[in-house]
Amino acid sequence: MNKGIKKTGTPSWEELKASPGLPDEDRLEKGPVAFIECVQEIPCNPCEEACPFNAIEVGTPITNLPKLNGEKCTGCGLCIAACPGLAIFRVHKNYTDSTSLVEFPFEYYPLPEEGETVNCVNREGKFITKGRVVRVRNPERFDSTPLITVEIPKEFYLEVRSMERKRCKGC
């Protein structure tokens, strides 16, 4: 096997499908929901602590993969900034008839502006599509992990996981 987190640094689709952190298709149809792409059994549980709705369970041992309870998840996104592995996203599949929203952690400056068109990339950093920034959240409680929400064509909601970095003037 030449794909997967241990070979490429990014989870393969097979690894993601086998993880307990993904919402099922029925939950994706209902509205915004967390999409936990954690596929390595490492000692970590800030996502569980961050969720005010108990929708994420790691339990004991702490190396368990986080399990999403899609019915409890409200899609608030508080778990996204809490994840030190930047492995949680928020997906709103049916934002409009033709577009979806994907929210992701983005720890690069300069941050995009709301309304700006950006190049959206997949887990490997490859360009997928253009997206429109609809929200930039960067409150102090996120501890320097801003969250960016982009509106994208619906066919890419399972692929888009970040955006290309903007180059600052003089860099």
TrEMBL record:
InterPro entries: 4Fe4S_Fe-S-bd (IPR017896), 4Fe4S_Fe_S_CS (IPR017900). It comes from the Bacteria. The keyword Disulfide bond does not apply. Residues 29-61, 64-94 form the 4Fe-4S ferredoxin-type domain. The keyword Zinc does not apply. Residues 1-25 are annotated as: Disordered. GO terms for molecular function: iron-sulfur cluster binding; metal ion binding. Keywords: Iron, Iron-sulfur, Metal-binding. This is Electron transport complex subunit RsxB. It comes from Koleobacter methoxysyntrophicus. The gene is rsxB_2.
